[in-house]
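Whether sequence alone determines local backbone shape is best considered at the level of individual chains. In the encoding step, the backbone of a single protein was reduced to a row of integers, each denoting a local shape. For completeness, the protein is quoted in full, as a sequence line and a line of structure tokens.
***
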Amino acid sequence: MSNFFEVKNVDFSVAGKVKVRNVSFVIEKEGDIICLLGPSGIGKTTILRTIAGLERTKNGTIELKGNLLSSEKNHVEPEKRNISLAFQENSLFPHYTVEKNILLGAERNKGKKNLQLSFKEIIDLLDISLILNKFPHEISAGESQRASLARSLITQPDLLLLDEPLSNVDQSFKEEIQVKLKRILKKLKITTIIVTHDSYEAFYLGSKCGIILNQELKQFDDPYKVYHLPNSIEVVNFLNRGILIPAEVTSPKSLDNVDLGTITGNFIKPFPIGTKVKLLIQPEDLEHDDKSNLQLEIVDRKFRGAGFIYTLKSNSNMLIPVFVHSHHIHQHEENEKFGIKRPIHIDHIVCF
């Protein structure tokens, strides 16, 4: 059985300049959601524009539902792809009200059968009923984004492309929309590609996440593996969810670090005994223990709601992050000593 959507060996370019090289990934089933992460200007929007047909490809292929959309010799025009693209910036028609802008999307649905999402449901989902009679210049950037998203959703396309869809939405409202958006996309089986700079958003919404760095798709995997099993130092540095410390492999299931001592666990990739490696330590890997004989100095503390991230300075001046639940019996202050539970065991040891 063929994949629902497939990009194969495509260079994504704009104005003759290649932004991302030799990209390949698939969306296996209708209704799946994938997210693309990467720094600003890396080419994420160019990927969406090319999939939508607004940019041409000079090599590789793009297929949707078994139909060839783009290749070196073939190019299906945007209006014939049944793909909807919602841009990050304001893409509303300025001389129409918000309601009229959204209904323009509904016009594309004329003649379609089995539509499952009503105008009212879309409006309620995105909480924009109070701005329907306003013009784009009379609403905020966040409201404009939600109106553009409403217009895209109501078309119920074969493939929905969202470029930073919630970047201007207030944080207090963003998580609620994320939950509702994911629910409605799954309910209607609207296959979606989301570009976002927010890794937490990507890990929640996407069944697969792609990391784009240095003109390449570095990793394309489920969110758990992208977070816990990054495949390169570049991905580790981009996600910024831990540090790399020097260590030496001492057995098939252990290694030593000058400050932390022996660390045991299961290597994701085997290394010969004696190999000098860089070991990934994430905040959740180490456990706090007030009675431990391994005590390090606290140099910073960040409150994260459910917990604290303490930054500890080791004897060799490494800065090591450790997560502690906020309901821990007592909080620790900067310059205090902080104990790390020993022996140290990490289920999945990631080294480079």
